[in-house]
Structures are given as C-alpha cells and as structure tokens.
Amino acid sequence: MNRMRRAAVLLCADSAPLGIGEWATEGPEVHVVSSLCGTPEAIGQVLARKGIESLILGLCSGEYSLAEIQRETRQLGLDPFGVEILHLQGISAERSRLFLSASVARAGAYEGSRPENAKLCISSQIGRRSLLKLALTEYRCVPAVHEETCAVRTGCRICVGACPHSALAPSDGTLRLDKQACVSCGICVTACPREAITQPTCTPSQLRAEVQVLLSGEGGEERHPLPL
Ligand code: SF4
Ligand code: SF4
Q1: Would you say the pTM of this structure is higher than 0.85?
Q2: Residues 6 or more apart from 197 whose CB is under 8 A from it?
Q3: Ligand 2 centroid to 166 CA: how many Å?
Q4: What is the per-residue pLDDT across 32-83, written as a single tens digit (0 to 9) for each?
Q5: Which of 53, 91, 188, 212 has its CA 20 to 30 A from that of 180?
Q6: Which of 192, 195, 198, 199 to mutate to test the pocket of ligand 1 (most atoms within 8 A of CB)?
Q7: Which of 145, 182, 195 to mutate to test the pocket of ligand 1 (most atoms within 8 A of CB)?
Q8: Is residue 93 one of the residues assigned to a domain?
C-alpha cells in the first residue's frame, strides 16, 4: 500500500465561506490566504521549507494563472500535477468542506508523475502580470506508456485504434505518444486491457479515494447518497 502524501490546503480568503477557515480533516494543514487567486507567490511564502508533497488550492474563481501557480509550486519542488485546484465561489461552506475533503483524499492517493507525463504548452492566459513574472508556459498531463507491460510488440493496437486524435502509433516495437496531438482525454487509458498506459492525475486509486469521501459525506454535514 502506498504511503499517503503530505498535503496542505490553501484557501483564498476572498472565497472561503463562513466557517470554512476552520475546516480541517485528519491530515492536512489548512491556511487561509488573502487574495490567493491574484497573488500565487503567496503559495511559496506560506509553504516555504515545509516538505509538502501535494497541494489543494481553494480559489474564488477561474481567473487565476495556472502558469504562475505551477511556477510557484515548482520552485517549492512540488510535482506540478500534484496540485488540485477547486473553485469555491458561490459554494456553501458545507459543500466546500465536502469537496475539499474529497480533494485531500484524491491528493493523498496521487502516486506522482514521470517526466514523460509532462506536456509543455503556451499558457492560455498571458496577461501583463504573467509577462513580468515570465510565467508564459504551463504543464499539462498526458498519459505515459509502460513498455514492460505494453503488448504492442505482439501486435496489440487497441489504444491506437481508440485514440480519436491519432496520437498513438507503433514505432520500432514500442508505442509512441505524440504529446502535441494528445488532448489528455484518457480514452486510451480505459481502452488498454493491460493497464500499460496510465495518466497519473486520473488513476483508479485516486478516483476510489475521492468517490468514497463524496459518497460518505465526510467533511460536510449531510450524507450525499447516489442519485437514483
Ligand atoms: S492497448 Fe495497452 S497493451 Fe495494447 S498497445 Fe496500447 S498500451 Fe500497449
Ligand atoms: S489521452 Fe486521448 S488524445 Fe491522448 S493519446 Fe490517449 S486517447 Fe489519444
């Protein structure tokens, strides 16, 4: 069984509903940070030298710069895909606690990425601030092939046929993934019968951990049964 990663939660004070600042589960430390969405450098100031491995950010809107957040977290030595981002604006304190608990569980089950999983892209949000900070690129997560379990050598082409973007192709007895063509849809991951292609930000153990919390209602005040 994998060790749970040490996680921290940072909540933007502008979004944190009444009472959410006191929210805590068994594991992570929680910080409420003023204007976190607009000042991602606060991440480094709060977490400097704390040995955090996973981070959950509760932000007030979608108007943050992923490139700037990744830049700050990389400087802390964090895996860029070990950061969960939640938009909490307009969500009740009860539901925010539930979603945060689910994200903490998901972050705890994250097993880390490999260099092959990183796709470098030009940031979709380049503002004056990003230019000044030279945060113009961001990482997106793409699947990686495990050559030791992949059966492409013996003729398997299931994922090649399943990919809607023609991003997978056999090459010299191995399976090659064209990162630029890949849109991280995950279809190849579910198509492979040997679990030989994986996406570290969406693994069965992460989904299991997240869904268990969401179904139990842990962290909220009510139980949330499956809809009929
Ligand atoms: S479906 Fe799985 S085993 Fe087959 S080629 Fe793709 S990654 Fe390899
Ligand atoms: S994640 Fe989607 S686009 Fe990327 S290789 Fe797999 S099926 Fe193709």
Answers
A1: no
A2: 143, 144, 145, 146, 150, 159, 175, 188, 189
A3: 8
A4: 888 887 788 888 888 876 777 888 998 887 677 888 888 888 888 888 888 8
A5: 53
A6: 192
A7: 145
A8: yes
